Amino acid sequence: MDKLNVEERVDRGVRYFMEGYNCSQSVSLAFADIYDVPEELMARIAASFGGGIGRMRLTCGTVSGMAMLAGLECGSTNPADAAAKGRNYAEVQGLAEKFREANGSITCAELLKMRSCKVETAPSPDMRNAEYYAARPCARMVASACRIYAEYLNSK
Question: Is the pTM for the entire model greater than 0.85?
């Protein structure tokens, strides 16, 4: 595979987010073409991982998006192959650690700086408008995850 243009992948991911896709969809869609996954299928697969998995504010959807992509890149398909499973997990942990180093956490609630331990579980997403985009770090998280994943692919 030719080296990826990192900033083009970052721009692509942020553009998807600004169109209204969730954070996980935005990261995974930015690389769907590499894996020959149709955009509609990729968006459907990643749909439940936005907002820290179903808006429960757990693992940041951008990290989940990178994990899904890592599964496409090096995921184990043989349930008896523990070594392959371990290699995939190591890749995912490495990607998550790079994200943590860059952003301070991989947890949605922490990245959003939610003050209480109460997790926001209302399933309705927030309205996407100028205030939403100004108050949230999500577009920056999408950019960060896309950059990390593109650099990961370029290092292979």
Answer: yes
Q: What does the block give as tokens for 46?
A: 């990643």
Between residues 19 and 130, which one has the greater pLDDT? Answer: 19
d(CA 56, CA 7): 30
- Residues in contact with 116: Cβ distance below 8 Å, sequence separation at least 6, in sequence order: none
Q: How many CA atoms lie within 13 A of 4 on its CB side?
A: 22
Q: How far apart are CA 34 and CA 72, in angstroms?
A: 10
76 C-beta neighbours (distance < 10 Å), count = 16
Instruction: Tell me the two tokens of residue 64.
Output: 């989940």
- Nearest-angstrom CA–CA distance, 122 and 55: 7
117: confidence class by pLDDT, cuts 50, 70, 90: very low
